[in-house]
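Bump. Still looking for Nitroreductase structure tokens.
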Amino acid sequence: MSGSTLNGISRVDPRSGRPGWKRAILRAAATKPGTALHRMVAARLDKPLMKVTGGRVTLGAGAVPVAILTSIGARTGKCRETPVTYFTDGDDVILMASNYGGDHHPGWFYNLLANPECELHIGPRGGRFTARETHGVDRDQLFALAVELYSGYGRYAQRTEGVRTIRVLRLTPSG
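Sorry for the wait, here they are.
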């Protein structure tokens, strides 16, 4: 494990401290109204905003790291681009298939199960990765780290209890 990036994606330690303004943004985003606002507005605008600014600006205001995931549609075979929040663990990028605590996994999760080869980009930086779902202790430890990054994941897990388990994926850099 070396360097400040993984295949062009900045390393993010979910345990590192955050300034008070970032914690305030994350607390607001973790509320039901904050989640709804992010889902309906920010998530839809992040992809074009990141493209226009070369990845320098997201509506997460730097409170959480955001990258653009490029995957192949499980049913359509078409290229799909989705903004995702991530963090790193060792030499892997970690993604949470939380879907804001909804009843179903996000579409990109099914895409990665069907076609694990994908790309992550932040502006012009990025590269190819191979996704795999985590299980057992590894999944539980990564989920706990995700809650340290963003407490909303804990609330999402409460909303999905008895409906589904939020899946966690490891993306390993590839050729």
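Residues 7-173 form a domain with the Pnp Oxidase; Chain A fold (CATH 2.30.110.10).

Edit: fixed formatting.
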